[in-house]
Task: inverse folding
């Protein structure tokens, strides 16, 4: 699916209740997991010790941090929708985020997004987006939730 370009509050409103699209797949590598562990100081062995994870976990490999997968939201969202004509975008809120399944190393994930609502807050667009992080060849997503972005459009 090609990237949507939206340049105004009115254009945003026209997508209420509609699926916006799906990003490209992104491969979660062990190097990315290690860098995330270093950045967040979360060095739990299930993410980093490949030998132990193979033997002692039901996943039979290391897994990505849940918050690593959440941190991919802006990157994957940007593949689905380009919001133009804005002064600023603010990540405002995440509601009802539920981790459904671990993402094992070398899995490929992609984001599916649906526009739930758009509200005009005195010129600022408050958007609620239903997000699902899909894992390639898995019926169960890594997570589901609702994210809220604020868009300050240029006049």
Result:
């Amino acid at each position: 699916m090609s990237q949507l370009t939206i340049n105004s509050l009115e254009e945003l409103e026209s997508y209420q209740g509609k699926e916006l699209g799906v990003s490209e797949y992104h491969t979660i590598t062990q190097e990315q997991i290690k860098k995330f562990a270093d950045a967040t100081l979360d060095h739990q062995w299930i993410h980093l010790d490949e030998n132990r994870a193979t033997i002692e976990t039901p996943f039979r490999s290391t897994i990505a941090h849940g918050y690593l997968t959440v941190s991919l939201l802006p990157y994957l969202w940007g593949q689905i929708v380009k919001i133009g004509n804005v002064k600023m975008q603010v990540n405002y809120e995440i509601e009802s985020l539920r981790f459904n399944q671990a993402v094992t190393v070398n899995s490929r994930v992609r984001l599916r997004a649906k526009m739930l609502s758009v509200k005009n807050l005195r010129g600022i667009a408050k958007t609620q987006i239903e997000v699902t992080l899909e894992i390639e060849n898995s019926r169960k997503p890594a997570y589901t939730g609702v994210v809220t972005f604020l868009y300050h459009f240029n006049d």
In short: The chain has six helices and eight strands. The helical segments are 9-13, 30-40, 45-48, 50-56, 66-71, 73-80.
